[in-house]
Design a protein that fits this description.
The complex is a heterodimer.
Chain A (H helix, E strand, L loop, with lengths): L2 H14 L7 H17 L8 H17 L4 H25 L5 E6 L4 E5 H27 L2 H10 L4 H30 L6 H32 L17 H25 L4
Helix pairs in contact in A: 1-7, 2-3, 2-5, 2-9, 3-5, 4-5, 6-7, 7-8
Chain B lengths: L3 H10 L3 H4 L8 H28 L3 H17 L2 E2 L5 E2 L4 H8 L1 H19 L7 H26 L3 H27 L5 H45 L1 H4 L4 H8 L1
Antiparallel strand pairs in B: 1-2
The chains are: A mainly alpha, B mainly alpha.
Chain lengths: ~270, ~250
């Protein structure tokens, strides 16, 4: 099992990359605005230039500026991409409307392939790749603790944040416990055959459930011992955002919007 | 570090989980917004309930958090599916049976955010759609069925299996609808829905059955070894005046 490895690897990168100490507001602003623009770029012929631009920029930022291990980035990227290719082939072959470009008659039905379906799948491919790179930029450079500070600033309900922070605290503990239990089961031949595997999984989950309840009790005791009054307070260590960077990102966004708009006009023969 | 088992992990999760969560950027903006708009009122109600529960029962906060961590870890486990591949349980059906749909919705939201932020499963733009299918529609159906079965005095085993399996199936049907609305096919939304549903059926129906069986086994294990622990969870379901005493007496 290696999920905990991968979770831990991404989490570690968020704390140790070269951009870890820079303002989370700047990073989040960049990632989210690029993400929204990438998803919002309308779907007609040449607009996938926008997602491609965003993808290249994010990749440069992740590998060049944040100095994230290229293998980690590649590993994160490659499997969603494989899935995406499959999904896009599926979209191209079975979706779309209008006049079919080719028709194959099968004994029970006619199978038509449409130009709009192929276009849609190409757009989806670039859109997802662009969006993934934005998400990876955020994930690999900004830690969950920093993100929770931002969420606190934009007044996300406190209960939600406190519970999330506690969940985050215990995810890694439990992933490790799970791995240990799973290894123990494997050593005792608990995974021979489907029935044994699913029974083993149920034992594991049941035990984990009991452990989490017990841990909840202990956590509550610990919190009470430290003067818990219904609120969980955390120390905010928040680097101020660089105004120049924010303006630069805003300019980049405006540039992208202009590119989209120009392409839009060109495509519909206005220019 | 990054080793071969990592590749194996990624290869196996493709079977179910990535397909189940709509990928980052897969939906165009208008559909992202629609599903956010539909999810947010339900989530606000969930937060309202949560605030009420945690105010009345201070113990509820760590309890909810640990349950959230539990669901996250459950959804990271490899579940051997019936067709020989393995996949990941959603855990949201189980959460609905344990905690009721409002809390299950909030916990699913947090788990989905962490899955997006720690492993890029699902995504931020598709969060609304994923929360709707996995955290709202699925648990709502699962919980309703569980409540109905409780009244009929049938064996709870059948109730749990049906609730969890149907909750999974609801998630998969809703996801198919979400995709069908965003990706038109000749012959209308219904044709598009049939296309997506057919693809999902291969992985998700066996997975739903496997997860139902898993839930039954977990429940019987818990009832056998720690029956009284389940009563603790009533704290989360009914924050009425007597629950505080119940907690204190334990």
């Amino acid at each position: 099992m290696s999920h905990s490895d991968l979770y831990a690897e991404v989490d570690r990168s968020a704390y140790t990359n070269a951009l870890a100490k820079s303002s989370p507001i700047t990073k989040t602003f960049f990632a989210l605005s690029a993400l929204v623009l990438c998803v919002a770029a309308p779907t007609f012929v040449p607009t996938f230039i926008v997602p491609i631009l965003i993808f290249i920029l994010c990749t440069i930022l992740i590998l060049g500026i944040a100095k994230v291990n290229p293998r980690l980035y590649l590993n994160l990227l490659i499997y969603p991409t494989l899935m995406l290719v499959l999904s896009c082939i599926f979209l191209a072959l079975f979706f779309g409307t209008g006049d079919p470009i080719t028709q194959i008659s099968l004994p029970w039905t006619t199978w038509s392939i449409y130009k709009s379906g192929i276009l849609m799948s190409v757009h989806t491919f670039f859109r997802v790749e662009g969006a993934l790179s934005c998400l990876f930029f955020l994930v690999l450079t900004t830690s969950i603790t920093d993100l929770s500070l931002i969420l606190r600033r934009i007044h996300v309900p406190k209960v939600l944040l406190e519970i999330s922070l506690l969940i985050y605290r215990y995810i890694f503990v439990f992933l490790e416990v799970t791995e240990q239990m799973s290894t123990a089961q494997l050593m005792r031949l608990g995974k021979g055959g489907w029935l044994k595997r699913i029974r083993g999984l149920a034992l594991l989950a049941g035990n984990l459930f009991i452990r989490s309840l017990e841990q909840a009790e202990r956590t509550f005791t610990a919190m009470n011992a430290r003067g818990y009054d219904g609120n969980i307070r955390v120390l905010e260590d928040f680097p101020q955002p660089n105004k120049m960077m924010l303006i630069l990102i805003a300019l980049f966004n405006v540039l992208l919007i202009l590119v989209i708009y120009t392409l839009y006009l060109t495509n519909f023969g206005v220019l | 570090m990054l080793n071969k088992s990592l590749y194996a992990y990624w290869l196996t999760i493709q079977q179910g989980e990535i397909i189940m969560h709509i990928m980052e950027g897969f939906l165009p903006l208008e559909w992202c917004l629609v599903w956010f708009a539909l999810s947010i009122p339900v989530l606000i109600y969930g937060v309202y309930r949560l605030t009420k529960i945690t105010k009345k029962v201070p113990e509820a906060k760590p309890l909810l958090a640990l349950m959230g961590a539990f669901i996250f870890v459950i959804s990271a486990l490899k579940l051997p599916s019936v067709v020989g591949s393995s996949s990941h349980p959603t855990g949201s059906g189980l959460a609905a049976v344990f905690f009721g749909p409002a809390v299950a919705g909030i916990l699913s939201l947090i788990v989905l955010v962490f899955q997006a932020l720690l492993l890029a499963h699902g995504g931020l733009t598709t969060l609304g759609a994923n929360v709707f299918s996995m955290g709202i529609a699925g648990p709502a159906i699962g919980f309703t069925i569980w409540m109905l079965f409780k009244r009929t005095k049938l064996s709870p085993t059948i109730g749990i299996f049906t609730a969890v399996a149907l909750s999974d199936l609801t998630t998969y049907i809703v996801t198919s609808i979400q995709l069908a609305l965003a990706f038109p096919a000749e012959g209308g939304i219904l044709a598009a829905f049939t296309n997506f549903a057919a693809i999902y059926a291969v992985t998700q129906i066996p997975l739903a059955i496997a997860e139902g069986i898993l839930a039954v086994l977990i429940f019987s294990f818990l009832a056998k070894y720690k029956g009284n622990i389940l009563s603790l969870l009533k704290v989360l379901k009914s924050p009425v005046s007597n629950t505080t005493q119940e907690v204190e007496s334990q």
